[in-house]
Structure formats: C-alpha cells, structure tokens
Write a structure and sequence with these properties.
single chain; 7-stranded mixed β-sheet; 16 strands; about 30% helix; about 25% strand
C-alpha cells in the first residue's frame, strides 16, 4: 500500500509498504476518506517518517479470526485509538479515556496500520461505526475530529434552539462545532482572527465573530448577551489564553466545554460564577451513534462548507501546505485517487 511520509521540513511524499495484516478482533479497512488534523505540525517540523493521522472512513476488506461485529464490504468510520475493550470506560463507549490501550501493530505484527494517511489501516471491530447508506464517506468521516469533539460538547451541554453558543477558534474543529450548533438551531457567536475562517463562519450562519485579542472583545460579548455573558461556550482553539477568556465571558451558572488543549482557567472565577467545565475529547459511540449520524445527515449543507478542500493522494504535499497555511476549513485526502 501507499502511505504518506515526511521526508524533510515541509516536505512529504508517498512510500510503498506492505499492507497491514489482521489478527484477533482486528479488521483491515480500505481508507476512502482521510481528514487532515494536527499532524501538519510533524510536516512543518520535518520529523521524518510516516505521517500519523487518526481520522478515517472506508470499507472493511479483511477480518481477524475473532471479528464478529463487521464483515468485508461494510462501510465504517474508524474510531481513533484502540482501547482495551474490557474496562468500564471502553464498555460504556468512552474508550478514548482508556488507561490500558492496545498496540495494534504489535498484536497484528505490522510496521504500520494505525496511521490513517494511508490506503489501509487496522482497527478492532467494536471501534468501527457503521455508515448509513445515504451518507458519503467524506461526510461520515466528520464523525472523527471534524465533528466528534464538538458533538460531545453539544450533547454534554444539551444545546437547544433557545441557546447562544460561543465558540473559541473557528478552525476545522470549531467550524464543525458551529455546524452542529447551527443544526440544533442555536444562535452562534465566534472568536477568531483568521479572515478566511471568519468569512466561512459567517457564510455558514455564525451571527458575529469577535477578535479575541481586541481590547473590546469582552465588552462586545456582553453587548451581544444583554450584559449577562454566554451560558454555553466551547473552546476549540487550543490557544493558551482562550480557556480563561471563556471564563470571563461566561454567564453565571454557565457551562464551558473544552475539546481544545489550551491553558489554565481561573478557579476562583469559576467558583464565583458557579461554572461547570466539561472535558470533551471524543464522543460516546456506544450511546450516541444514531444521534451522530442523524446530525451529519441533517447538517450536510453545512458540512459542504466546512470541508473546503479534497485532494487525491498524489497531492498530499499541496494538501498539507494548505492545512499549514490555515486558509482552509477541513481538508480530506482520498488515498485511492491519483
């Protein structure tokens, strides 16, 4: 198979390697949609070797002897990471927090198989989510980081049409979060400085986008919320100062969900306002698969705006350059297109 390798700083190419093999309860998936995420940092840094990747949708083509939940030909979304499958977190659908994760390469005897910027990967059968017939691979692949963290945030905070939601950072994760909030009928505000993404967010229906570095940013939010602050907000930027800004912008008894990996929050102000802070990394596939797929189905027109670029494998270099420029929403690679 072909997979993407970093060859030098800001340089990548395609390399041929043996197809990954299956064992135990692992299946091999032919990857048809591979969204780009944060791995562009490896590309920029020039950390040579296979480029990672943890998002994929595709078709099951081979199964191990203990697989009983999927079969060849099934269309699936590949959940990130590989939990133990037996702890309380895994069995309840929160495998992302598993403390005893498995090593798929060691189990299956592969050199690769976990990176998704490749033509094949392997994953345990219980971590393969069925794709409904009416959803494309590109749309379904948004169930990973494109919409996954934001979906968790919306579910956890029970966002409704009567809510105003503030999203910090309108990059690929933030735009996906905005799509979900808009699909739910909520009023959406954003914090962003990138002009490309500001224009895209407004085209989607985000009511107002505020520059978080402006001296008047907090005042603008208060003006937009009748001086109460925001009852529900989501941190998607991973900027060091962003989480604490959301604390300042929060309404009393408000909620903050944080898929991002930013800096600290002021515990004193959290307590004084009676805020609830949620860590939202990935969604619960055991409980919420039907709801996730319904959200993707209902938000298709918004996803068509958030997925700003698709590329064949032969243009992985160009795809990563655009991702690194931040002049994009979500980018999807198609590993079997030349």
């Amino acid at each position: 198979m072909k997979h993407v390798v970093v060859t030098a700083r800001s340089q990548c190419g395609l390399e041929e390697i043996d197809d990954p093999q299956v064992a135990e309860n692992y299946a091999r998936i032919k990857i048809l949609s591979a969204p780009l995420c944060t791995e562009f940092h490896q590309f920029l840094n020039g950390d040579t070797g296979p480029l990672g990747g943890h998002e994929a949708a595709g078709e099951v083509v081979d199964i191990g002897p203990r697989v009983n939940m999927v079969k060849p030909g099934d269309r699936v979304v590949v959940m990130p990471q590989s939990g133990c499958g037996i702890c309380a977190l895994c069995t309840s659908g929160d495998h992302i927090y598993c403390q005893n994760k498995k090593d798929p390469k060691a189990i299956c005897g592969n050199q690769t198989g976990t990176a998704t910027y490749a033509q094949y990967c392997v994953q345990q059968d219980w971590l393969l989510v069925p794709i409904p017939d009416d959803l494309s691979y590109d749309h379904a692949s948004m169930a990973c980081c494109g919409m996954g963290p934001g979906f968790n945030a919306m579910q956890t905070m029970q966002v409704m049409p009567t809510d105003t939601v503030l999203i910090s950072g309108l990059g690929p994760v933030g735009l996906g979060t905005a799509a979900i909030a808009l699909y739910r009928g909520a009023r959406v505000l954003g914090l962003e400085m990138n002009t490309y993404r500001i224009a895209l967010a407004r085209e989607m229906g985000v009511e107002a986008v505020i520059d978080p570095t402006s001296d008047s940013a907090l005042e603008e939010i208060m003006d937009l919320t009748d001086a109460r602050g925001v009852a529900k907000s989501v941190e998607c930027s991973s900027v060091e100062t962003a989480p604490d800004f959301l604390v300042k912008a929060a309404a009393r008894r408000g909620q903050i969900a944080s898929p991002g990996w930013g800096g600290p929050m002021n515990a004193r102000e959290i307590n004084a306002k009676g805020l609830t802070v949620h860590g939202c990394w990935h969604w619960n596939h055991q409980r919420d698969t039907e709801s996730m797929m319904a959200t993707i189905r209902g938000a298709k027109s918004l996803l068509d705006k958030t997925i700003t670029h698709t590329f064949p494998f032969s243009k992985a270099q160009e795809a990563l350059e655009i991702r690194a420029s931040n002049q994009c929403g979500k980018i999807v690679l198609h590993p079997w297109e030349e």
